[in-house]
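Section 5: illustrative case.
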């Protein structure tokens, strides 16, 4: 059993910043990768960023590259998403997910998902 809990969402003006946290509990796996996804109203869920627990490699969607940073704190079993220069199109529910990391990189098969946290960016 792995539980993921996102926090840190909220309302921010365009150009502002937010940091999201994803706290994991229940079990830990040295080979787990962690990812962030988002889903805007009326749209499909899309990939945002992922980080390998074992290798420290990061990957980003083109839409957020250079603005968002994914990081980890293994001692706290927590993954973060630092979001800078936010745009109205970043408005979405952001989800944290965990996947077994086989060392081959993305795409990963995400087995566990959090409940999501709302991020709203005003123009």
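Designed sequence:
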């Amino acid at each position: 059993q792995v539980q993921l809990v996102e926090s840190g969402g909220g309302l921010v003006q365009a150009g502002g910043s937010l940091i999201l946290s994803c706290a994991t509990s229940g079990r830990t796996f040295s080979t787990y990768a962690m990812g962030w996804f988002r889903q805007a109203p009326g749209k499909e869920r899309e990939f945002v960023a992922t980080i390998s627990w074992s290798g420290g490699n990061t990957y980003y969607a083109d839409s957020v590259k250079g603005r968002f940073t994914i990081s980890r704190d293994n001692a706290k079993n927590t993954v973060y998403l630092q979001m800078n220069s936010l745009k109205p199109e970043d408005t979405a529910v952001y989800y944290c997910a965990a996947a077994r990391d086989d060392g081959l990189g993305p795409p990963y098969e995400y087995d566990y998902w959090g409940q999501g946290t709302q991020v709203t960016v005003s123009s």
